[in-house]
Amino acid sequence: MSERAPSRRRPVGGRRERPGAVAQGVAAATLIIAVLTAASRVLGFLRETVYASVFGASPELDAFLVAQGVPNLVLGMVSTAIATAATPVLAGYVAAGRRGEAARSFSALANAVLVVVVPALALLGVLAEPVVRWMAPGFGPEQVRLAAGLTRLLLVASLFVTVMNLLTGLLHAHRRFTGPAATGIPFNLAMIAAAAFFGTTYGPWALAAGFTVGSLLRVLIQLPEARWVGFRHRWLLDWDDPGLRTIAGLLPPLFLGAAVSEVNVFVDRMVGSTLGEGIISALNYAFRVVTLPHGLVAMALVQAVYPSLGAVAEAGDGAAFRRLLQRGMGALAVGLAPMTVALVVLRDPIVAFVYGRGRFDAQDATLTALALAAYGLGLVPMALRDLANRALYAARDGRTPARVALVAMGVNVAGDLVLGPWLGITGLALATTLSFTTGLVLLVAHLDRRYGAVDVGGLLASTGRVAMAAAASGVAMHGAYRALLAHWQIHPSALADGAAGAAVELALVAGPGAVGCVAYLLALVVLRSPEVTDLVEAGRRLLDRARQAAATARPGMRRTGSP
Question: For labeling, which of 182, 200, 451, 517 is most exposed (least CB within 10 Å)?
């Protein structure tokens, strides 16, 4: 952690912005981004519930999900990584007032990416059937033909996604975040409309068409901001452009990280295709449930802590870095542990309430609930792993997360191949949880050994307190759940086939969940857990920041229309 002297460069044009105004603008932008991101995640979750109602956990949806994965062989390892690498390079040009060079480098980059991606997508279209057979060896001939046809349509969408990722990198470099943060909203609305209105008639082809239209909308929604920053694309291909060469130098670890993520999904679906129809769909449904609290709660805290970690790392304040990381990990564990308990204990009513309608039948519910319990065990390790990764990025260490991701990928692949045939869908989900846990342990060990940034004894003590409180919560939650089932004379099978009704399903989640949370908090108080205070303070700070951002945004909006 090194200390750098602050830059003395004057703003371009000689105009100096007041620090207070900048801070207020950042706070307002952060609030807007948080709202848009939350809206997108909620719509994405709603999209999955519509899928479940129209398709259930069916061979048709399995084929669509595999078809989605084929273009990601290119997109996951090319366009996303390149856009990520481009952002800091282009941002450097923009900050230095060299917007013309930024525009030229971006045009050269976009053209170079298209030169690579378009032929790759065309080749995938030609080889769609053998690629699908390789990715889903358990598919029958008819399912292979369906997935291959869907793949060819989704390749068009992939071109739009490539352009969208590049525009996102450009806008982030110009500190324009609203358009990129909003891209998920029109996409999810298009997918929901396609599934709800056309899914019954056209099956998975409606989803592929909706995906294509939604991907185009993700491009179009960013174009106004791209024009606002003055970007005009130029059809030039300059392999010697300095910005392009700098971006190319940043790519290897990003390619590696993207490849690891895609390989994990690929192997999950490959093994899942051999275990029976609907396995791939049920895994997708279950993981979507887990990613909702992860995205709305865990990532909100991680993103709030990350800038502070970067600031104290830049200042070389190791003690503050260690204290901030430790408190962040404690708050994540305390906040997410009762959610993990609920995902395990209340898996049946959760699945029934979220997905239990339409074509989503009892077998689909059983498969999804099994996967949900196994994925739920990985919620806390996944969140802590994300924070540990950010801590290393803040310390300018990008290689260790990439190396750890490789090891975790190996655990996931081995787990899929061993646990999948043995435990079925539960084994596939457990393999993912084991990979999250392995990555967390390795990252924490490195942070302790290399930077002295983790108090291992304190972390273990905190983990022990949270585990004991979670156990008490689980006992209380399970008891309340069984008591309600007995009181209302509901057999668990009624949840699987949707006979209980949405109101009862919600009550079976909310009532025992509340009882479990009360038991959890009481246990933490009895154990004198300091993380409770940290969590309350963090929540209070977030609310204060949101109120301040809203207060500063309103006058700014009123002034916008003033002469």
Answer: 200
Tens of pLDDT, residue by residue over 5-44, are 333 333 333 344 444 443 444 445 556 777 887 888 889 9
- Write down the pTM of the prediction: 0.83
Neighbours of 296 (CB within 10 A): 15
SS3 category, 233: coil
Q: What is the pLDDT of residue 16?
A: 40
In whole angstroms, what is the distance from residue 335 CA to residue 187 CA? 30
Q: Which residues make Cβ contacts (< 8 Å) with residue 551, sequence separation at least 6?
A: none
pLDDT in tens, 407-434: 999 999 999 999 999 999 999 999 999 9
Single out the residue of 189, 216, 197, 196 nearest to residue 42, CA to CA: 189
**Alpha-carbon dihedral sign for residues 25, 26, 29, 35:** negative
- Give the integer Cα–Cα distance in Å for 149 and 63: 10
Task: Judge whether 209 and 152 are in contact, CB under 8 Å.
Answer: no
**Two tokens, residue 338:** 């009762």
Can you tell me which residue has the tokens 């602050």? 6
Strand, coil or helix: 275 = coil
- CA distance linking residue 510 with residue 498, whole number of Å: 17
- Please list, in sequence order, all residues whose beta carbon lies within 8 angstroms of the beta carbon of residue 32, skipping any fewer than 6 positions away: 177, 178, 181, 553
Helix, strand or coil for residue 24? helix
Do residues 77 and 259 lie in contact, with contact meaning Cβ atoms separated by under 8 Å? yes
- Cα–Cα distance list, 106 to 109, 121, 164, 279 (Å): 5, 22, 13, 42
- pLDDT computed for residue 6 by the predictor: 36
